[in-house]
Amino acid sequence: MNRQLYDLTAADGTRFSPYCWRVKLALAHKNLKYESIPWHFTEKGAIAASGQEKVPVLQDGANIVSDSQIIADYLERTYPNEESLFGDPPARALTMFVKEWAETVLHPAVARVVVVDVYRRIAPQDQAYFRTTREAMFKRSLEEIEAGRGAALEALQTALRPLRRLLGGQRFIAGESPNWADHVVFSALQWGRLMSSTPLLAENDAILDWMSRVLATYGLD
Ligand SMILES: N[C@@H](CCC(=O)N[C@@H](CS)C(=O)NCC(=O)O)C(=O)O
After folding, report:
1. Tally of structural domains, the chain
2. Based on CB atoms within 10 Å of each CB, which residue in 76, 167, 179, 193 is the most buried?
3. For residue 1, what pLDDT is reported?
4. In angstroms, what is the C-alpha Rg of the chain?
5. Is ligand 1 within 6 A of the CB of residue 17?
């Protein structure tokens, strides 16, 4: 297969990156098969050809594309005969609001809950790098972040209120079927769900049902 996705991995093989999940859902949406290449935080050399140091990196034939949004735009442009990731231009514009909300509100809220869980589950060779970069990002030690985990879990519930209310009345963020808006929000919560040492959502939460519907749409589990 001539399509590879460099995909962040934990020590046990769990692929947990929210940005990589977005691209996996977008590839499924476009009916495109790919090979998932496990990648560790410190394996910068493996993705050097992309000209930057983060995943996802998609190698599609001769094309090397990085950054989840740029990859989504690339897939939309390159595979126009498959189902659209965004819908018409006004729908795409609204989707960009969802992406900004996800990155400025939801990602930080999930990160505050799971960052220490992630630290414990990544490969030993990644841990020192992860600690240094994340402590600089949060301006606090991992131990201080962990002390605030209970409050962070509560704050996450508050951040999720608009999503929970929306999903009480419609099947997907994009309406009757999922698109990039669903992919972006799902992926943030999938990262949390896969890495959190405690459940993020109650068993009867409408958000969990929606996550199952997203996966089922693409035959994933
Ligand atoms: N804006 C980028 C963000 C990608 C990103 O932050 N990826 C993280 C994994 S979730 C990463 O590769 N981090 C490497 C590092 O921190 O060194 C996108 O949308 O793809």
Report:
1. 2
2. 179
3. 66
4. 17
5. yes
